[in-house]
Write a structure and sequence with these properties.
By secondary structure, the chain is of the alpha+beta class. It has three domains: 123 residues, Jelly Rolls (Sandwich); 402 residues, no CATH class; 86 residues, no CATH class. The chain is 49% helix and 12% strand. Strands 1, 3, 4, 6, 10 and 12 form a six-stranded antiparallel β-sheet that branches. Strands 2, 5, 7, 8, 9 and 11 form a six-stranded antiparallel β-sheet that branches. A hairpin with a 6-residue loop joins β15 and β16. α19 runs antiparallel to α20.
């Protein structure tokens, strides 16, 4: 018992030691010199007023501190913007310096953001050669604004800051390093169903994971109080359905009907601007009416009941939050069912826990949680229903029979996926390897004795399929047309067609492109979208290929080629089928839509499902090889560290409506807490 808690105590000790020493080094060094109020002059861009404020006449306002003649390590710059058309939260500044090595001003760094609410942002650490002769500060504010310079201090003392966030991150990191170290004894503890200690640890990890997911939902206020008209489509569909109609109440402008091709973006925009008309962006326009082409299941599950009960619009972020919590629970349960069913007494508990955490955080769902918008909900719900469905299927396989209710529940969940995100229906192919023995060896399905449960399973799919086909036929005159081709966006999807040239670009961007790493928080930048493909497609900024950063998923694919280690052939079939479905979805997304960050969630969970099966098989095959196990331990720890770091850093990035823009106070809180040396 003492050894179990020794690692935790050690982690707390080292986290506290590092926090009060290394993490405070900027404060310690700032106390070496005495602070001094600086004297400045306005070199350009502003005029000083009698009350001491400065009126900006041109951008930027340039202030100069001259004839310093001493070493300067820290500059504190604190000012208040007193006027402006809108309240500015951040103000960009650029600092220039002259020192013993430079007679002329040189740029000390790119611009820094000064926040009134963040005192740490006001302390600028300078790195000059010898004595500082002068400092020039460029403040970027709009002409006509007034600024009150509150503090301008040379060699200011940076205050101590004991950070709970930093301490938490370090404690978790040290716990990982101690309990998952390759030489440690904890890898000898096998995943067991009835181990109470494992149950407690798992519950705590799940609670922490849910906390991270729920917190991410509230990061960006742009998605809590939505101001985009087209993001209200699900609510408007709920209103329409409550009145017995499938099209939205708002009628399109007659201008759309008059256009020879209303799906031509450039022509449509031109005519609408000339006639001062508008339309619902990204809505399906068909036969003179607006329709919602996104999956209808989220409306039936959340929006319509909420509207009928309250008369108000269901908040999309709440749907994301609820579904995200269910996703976490479903992912952990699925991983547990896989071990219980196919790898009993073969997988170390620490391996199971780390791999499951990688799946939950690395499959793309976490980035959806930090962007809880209308586009993300059908994807997230489709993925969650898929995990629930596979869970039900695997757990339905009992020793002597197939559980009827679990079989039917699984089929119902997998069928409903089509009403969320149609391409995710490929996950239903996993029913074949899962029930192969039940059908062909044990004759527990599709046999004379199992007609009832077999019929119910088929009816679950048939019932949902019939409803969706009728829904499509009533809207677009075809049972198989979901209406995506009629959307009013940047290109004419009705004539998009199938183009093989899009697939290599998508495979590279989605799977194999290296991440663009920088030296500034959050260290990940949008990757290049350059290509030799000459054609029209939709593309948004991404942050690296899925397989280049999710190394467990890549390892799973590599392991698949060593088929002889799979003693259970249906496990190989499940793994190969999941990976194959993921590749197909990548190609389908590229052809049907384009390259968008949220589409990583379409296929990420399938790659990880394949990886769990393959990686656990590798552990099982090496359990009698001390050298092989040691290699797996080291590889797993590296894979986990890279994958988790990338997934968590993605919380602070985005291709649009970024956290830095929408909630700079929170962004810079993390910035200065995690990049404490800045």
């Amino acid at each position: 018992m003492r050894e179990k808690y020794f690692g935790l105590f050690l982690a707390i000790f080292w986290a506290l030691a590092i926090e009060v020493t290394i993490c405070q080094y900027t404060s310690y060094f700032s106390f070496v010199k005495e602070p001094e109020n600086a004297t400045y002059r306005i070199s350009s861009g502003g005029e000083e007023n009698p009350d001491g404020t400065i009126t900006i006449t041109d951008t930027p306002l340039n202030l100069e501190i001259y004839d310093i003649g001493k070493e300067v390590n820290v500059l504190k710059l604190n000012f208040t913007r007193l006027s402006g058309e809108k309240e500015e939260v951040t103000t960009p500044v650029i600092v220039y310096g002259k020192d013993e090595a430079n007679d002329n001003y040189f740029v000390l760094s790119s611009y820094r953001e000064i926040l009134p609410e963040s005192e740490r942002s006001q302390y600028l650490r300078l790195h000059m050669s010898g004595k500082c002769e002068g400092i020039s500060i460029s403040i970027y504010a709009a002409p006509g604004e007034k600024i009150r310079l509150d503090e301008l201090i040379l060699n200011a003392h940076i205050p101590f800051n004991i950070s709970p966030l930093r301490l938490s991150v370090m404690i978790l990191t040290f716990c990982f390093l101690f309990y998952a170290r390759s030489e440690g004894a904890y890898y000898k503890i096998i995943k067991a169903d009835k181990d109470n200690t494992q149950k407690v640890i798992t519950a705590l990890v799940i609670a922490l994971q849910i906390f991270v997911f729920c917190s991410a939902v509230f990061f960006n206020p742009d998605f809590i109080e939505v101001n985009w008209r087209h993001h209200m489509q699900y609510h408007e569909l709920a209103v329409a359905l409550s009145k017995g109609q499938l099209y939205l109440e708002e009628m399109p402008s007659g201008i759309l009907a008059d256009l020879s091709n209303p799906y031509d973006f450039v022509t449509r925009e031109k005519i609408m601007n000339i006639t001062n008309q508008s339309y619902i962006w990204d809505c399906a326009y068909y036969d003179g009416k607006y329709y919602v082409y996104f999956g209808v299941v989220p409306v039936m599950l959340f929006y319509l009941p909420w509207y009928l009960l309250t008369g108000n619009a269901f908040p999309t972020w709440l749907g994301i939050l609820i579904t995200g919590v269910v996703f976490v629970l479903a992912a952990f349960r699925l991983s547990e069912n896989i071990v219980k069913r196919y790898f009993k007494n073969s997988v170390p508990y620490i391996t199971w826990l780390l791999c499951t955490l990688l799946m939950v955080n690395g499959c793309g769902v976490l980035t959806i949680m930090r962007r809880p918008d209308f586009y993300s909900l059908p994807i997230l719900l489709g993925v969650t229903l898929s995990l629930l469905g596979i869970n039900f299927w695997i757990s339905s396989l009992e020793e002597e029979k197939v559980s009827t209710w679990k079989l039917v529940a699984g089929c119902l969940c997998m069928a409903l996926v089509a009403g969320c995100r149609p391409q995710l229906v490929l996950g239903s192919l996993l029913i074949f390897p899962i029930y192969w023995e039940a059908v062909f060896k044990r004759r527990q399905l599709f046999s004379a004795n199992s007609k009832g449960k077999t019929t119910l399973a088929i009816l679950a799919y048939a019932f949902v399929a019939a409803g969706l086909m009728l829904y499509n036929w009533r809207r677009f005159d075809s049972p198989f047309d979901f209406g995506a081709a009629y959307n009013l966006t940047t290109n004419d999807m009705t004539k998009r067609g199938f183009e093989l040239g899009r697939i290599p670009v998508a495979l590279f961007r989605y799977l194999f492109q290296c991440p663009n790493v920088s030296g500034d928080f959050p260290y990940l930048q949008v990757t290049s979208g350059g290509t030799t493909y000459l054609g029209q497609t939709i593309s948004e900024g991404t942050f690296g290929g899925f397989l280049t950063v999710n190394l467990l998923a890549l390892a799973g694919i590599v392991i698949l080629f060593n088929r002889k280690i799979f003693t259970d052939k249906k496990v190989w079939a499940m793994s190969a089928m999941a990976a194959g479905a993921a590749f197909i979805i990548v190609c389908a997304d590229a052809e049907l839509a384009g390259i968008l960050p949220r589409y990583y969630s379409d296929f990420g969970w399938l790659f990880y499902l394949s990886a769990l099966l393959a990686w656990f098989t590798k552990w099982k095959s090496k359990r009698d090889s001390a050298e092989g196990i040691m290699v797996l331990r080291k590889a797993q720890n590296i894979i986990f560290a890279i994958g988790m770091a990338f997934a968590l850093l993605l919380l602070f990035t985005d291709s649009s409506n970024t956290l830095k823009e929408a909630n700079p106070q929170l962004y810079y809180y993390f910035y200065y807490e995690l990049a404490f040396w800045a």
